[in-house]
Amino acid sequence: HNASVWPPPLRRVRVPRALAQPQPQQRQERRPTRVSRQPDVHLSSQQLLPMAPPASDATATAPPVADTVAAGATVAASQSPSAGGAAGVVAPQQRPLWGAASNVSDLSGALSPTQSLAPTFAGNDAAPALVVFSGGTAFNSVAGHLRTLTTRVAHVLPVSDDGGSTAEIVRVLGGPAVGDIRSRCLRLADDSNEEARAVKRLLGHRLDSHDADAARREWHDLVEGQHALWGGMSDPYKHTIRAFLVHFHSAILRHSSERFNFRNGSVGNFFFAGARLFLRSLEAAIFLFSRVARIPEGSSVLPAICTENVITLGAELEGNAMIRGQNNISHPPRGAGTVDKGSGGPPLPAPLRRICYLSSEGTHQEHEVFPLVNPAVTAEVAAADGIVYAMGSLYTSICPPLVLTGVGEAIAARPAAPKLLLLNGSHDRETGTSPSGGNSGMTVSEVVQALTDALNRRHSPRTGHELHHLPSTYVTHIVVPAGGALHLDRPALAAMGLSDITEVESVRDGASRAVYEPEALVSVIGAILTRHPQPPPRAAR
């Protein structure tokens, strides 16, 4: 070619047919080789337990265990029984934590030792993929224990909390509430070494709850990097966290007309708000927080709504009266705007009919808005092996994500996936008034109906917005704590097509209310997931 021409002109080259079209044998060699699966391994808090093989394979010789578990830990065990015991690995015939029925009363349909305990879940994984709808408090006691069953959990949380330090952030800076998301991220955070524990202590710390000036002075020590809570952290962690705290502080100073009250402020909420403001994305802030807090791989915390705007919850009562704001619904402020989440306050003037979202203008039906669901929520539901409606405030924690368009459709499209309703052990302000007029609070069947109405978007003012699925489309299993206060009306539940009810061991909290024993509850969830799928519910007429 002429050296002055660059790049040189392209030339058409004739390729022989034998080279242009690979022979069948060549294409076959390029296919990936199928690798036989090693025995599935289950990670518990005490030991690594291999999942038992199906009964038909029980006589087969098990190869050495060498499989990746949960967040990447690898274990290897010899074929020798003694060597396996020394490594904390038991024989495949023994039952793992989530097939056991110990500490559980009336575990209907529990697995027997001869049943298969090694189902393959979504993605050919031995660990089930779960979607959990919950608030930021009640399920926290179980969230950490759930990793003994699986780390493939998508936690869906509302962004409508308007109490505590979250309310102060929203008042001054606007944006969605992040308190529930921060709370769940911290509960899932790693604490396996000193630095991880130091990060968790800092992000879980609250400033002085009584003296606003003392809280402000403590905050300044934190921002300036002088507080003792910075101890135990390497410089990269310290500089990263402090940078977003400084950004949050700068944002407050720019709002000179608003004096920020730091009293009882959550450092984690301040870090979260600073990250959201800097990145201009709630999802990006969650991603950053998850990495800083070292949340296990496979676990995710999803906001029900992706937005940079304030989200306001509304509750429509029987008789069409409307209550505005999550805390006005569940925990009305006492005194000078103080929210006491330990007390439900006075009873509601009428039973709750439905939950909805309101604009910033008013409290009437014409002010209702319809935000879009986070697409990641419906995507996780579509791929889940099980769906869990966790314990918590029914109308202000569980239902807000469920009333969003697309959630009911996504759950109804999964007829074979088990759908577990974890009931509370006591009534609160939201469930203390029964739709039937009783004085003992809502029954279990009324809770199921309220959940169904939320997913069906019943009483929606939008034409064509409602669904008409039966309760058995959305709930297949009911789990109750032993000694709980909610009346278990079995005939009404049977009429709904719900007969799979499991009672779980409970303990008493400081107010003598029945709450789940976490390990027993996780064991029951695992046992339910290992059963054969229920047949699809009959179609609604």
Describe this structure in words.
By secondary structure, the protein is of the alpha/beta class. 32% of the residues lie in helices and 13% in strands. The chain contains 19 helices and 17 strands. It has helices spanning 17-20, 24-30, 81-86, 140-143, 164-173, 179-188, 194-203, 212-223, 235-254, 267-279, 282-292, 326-330, 375-383, 394-402, 407-412, 444-456, 471-474, 490-495, 518-530; strands at 41-43, 48-50, 65-69, 73-77, 130-133, 153-157, 300-303, 312-317, 322-324, 352-358, 368-369, 386-389, 419-422, 477-481, 501-504, 506-508, 514-516. The strands form five sheets. The chain has a seven-stranded parallel beta sheet with strand order 7-6-5-12-13-14-15, with helices on both faces. Helix 10 crosses helix 11. It is globular and about 65 Å long. Mean pLDDT is 79; it is low at 15-118 and 534-541.
Key features?
single chain, 541 residues, alpha/beta, 7-stranded parallel β-sheet, 4-stranded antiparallel β-sheet, 19 helices, 13% strand, globular, disordered C terminus
Give a short overview:
This protein has 541 residues and is α/β, with parallel strands linked by helices. The protein has helices spanning 17-20, 24-30, 81-86, 140-143, 164-173, 179-188, 194-203, 212-223, 235-254, 267-279, 282-292, 326-330, 375-383, 394-402, 407-412, 444-456, 471-474, 490-495, 518-530; strands at 41-43, 48-50, 65-69, 73-77, 130-133, 153-157, 300-303, 312-317, 322-324, 352-358, 368-369, 386-389, 419-422, 477-481, 501-504, 506-508, 514-516.
